[in-house]
Amino acid sequence: MTQETIALEVFRYRPEQEREPTFQTYEVPLRKDWVVLDALNYIKDEIDGTLTFRWSCRMGVCGSCGMMINGTPVLTCAAFLETYRPGPVRIEPLANFPVVRDLVILMSDFMEKLGRVKPWIITDKEKPVAEGEYLQTPTQLADFKQYSMCINCLLCYSACPVSGLEPDFIGPAAIALAQRYNLDSRDEGSAQRMEVLSQDDGIWQCTLVGECSAVCPKAVDPAGAIQRYKVASTNDWWRSKLMPWGK
Amino acid sequence: MSDPTRYRKYHPKLYRTRMPIFWWVRKRAHIHFITRELTSVFVAFYAIELLFLLRTLTLGPEAYDAFLAWLQTPLALGLNTIAFLMIVFHSITWFNLAPKALVIRVGEVRIPPVAIAGLNYAGWAVFSAALAWFILTA
Ligand code: SF4
Ligand code: FES
Predict the structure, then answer these.
(1) Is A208 on the interface with B (CB under 8 A)?
(2) Domain ranges of chain A
(3) Potential cystine with A99: which of B10, B15, B112, B136 (Cβ 3.0-4.6 Å)?
(4) Angle between helix B28-59 and helix B61-71 axes, rounded to 10 deg
(5) Is there a contact between A139 and B26 if contact means CB atoms under 8 Å apart?
(6) Domain A108-242 of CATH type 1.10.1060.10
């Protein structure tokens, strides 16, 4: 029996050779146990060693293999090739990011935004080690656990039209990660983060399209995180207007 | 000296695209979103219509009758039907989204999102029934 194949139309951009990207079609075996990332690795190993893309863990943990497959952002290591039968399958770099080469995007802009929301535990006064650990109940853990599952894969930024239209928007994952720390019982930094996120490029840019949550492979629900933030910010505003002395 | 291995922010060789104006026609979810946003226009339409109705009350019975007659023209009926459908869409989509913003805990248990949407729908039903009773028994 001959092996069935499927065509992959892959986005190519070689900045030292061309100014505009092109699509190159590769015919690869359609194996039942292959994910799209396996097919890309097959191309790289057997057909065209110049194809460039990122990946590492091959198991949905490192968050580096995100690409657009037929226009939707997905982790290519979690997308079975068979789902796209009979093809062709169009593979592009994550939308809304500058492309460095082929399927590799530049993520420094996100890294800068992530740093701005201070994604670490902030305490007013550090507890001396001798006093022991900070204890947390399972319910307190449940408050933020979902947001801590984020793997920084940036699929949510690619799915978000606001991120595409307003590149300054701090964006879904960074805001979800801010919430991850705000809702942590050990943290005291929510006021500092609110200062950053209530600015023009923060939570109020979000128009609740909701696609970030639809594409998130880790069920983080960044859209939910942003809406909860809006509620908290509104409450803060009313409190400061109605009880200006209560700071 | 700057570090030569660092990416520059505006590297001339980076490939960038702009979103087309009609970015929202390509995906169902985006069309759904734009429709939801547009329904606000019809909410405004209803509000303005109601204001005009109130205005006729100050202008006397003829104005009121004329307004009611206008409401029965095919144009007004058409407009109001569209507005009604859009407002139903508006209410349903926003009620379904309410649990995203509201996470309520009672003791250890988080109220399930379905229950929060359900409460919104229940409120809607109760208010509509009360209004219907008020108008129909008047
Ligand atoms: S929120 Fe989800 S989609 Fe966004 S970066 Fe984190 S894991 Fe990826
Ligand atoms: S390769 Fe690590 S998430 Fe896909």
Answers:
(1) yes
(2) 5-105, 108-242
(3) B15
(4) 150
(5) no
(6) yes
